[in-house]
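so my prof wants the structure for this chain in the tokens format not the other one, which i didnt know existed until like an hour ago. anyway here's the sequence
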Amino acid sequence: MDADGRSAQTFLVDVVARRAGEQRRATASGRDIYAVTAPIVVEAAVRILDGRARRVGVAAAGELFDASDFLRALDPAHLTFTTPDRQTVG
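here's what i got, hopefully its the right format
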């Protein structure tokens, strides 16, 4: 633990999505996964309660919110998010 009570553990989530010959990649990384997941849950709850969710009922987070806007709302001190240029799948 550091002086702020954060774990020294690091994490990396690397996602590759392919469709119609195109490939997109997104990477999220940071330190202390709980310092990242708690704000994600709170941000999602706030957006649902204030009407910014795109639909009601059971849905994946990607279906409910604009991903880029959602990620920008999170504290960059705890999360790094990158999206390299589109790549064409061979």
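also thought this was worth mentioning. The two ends are 45 Å apart (CA to CA).
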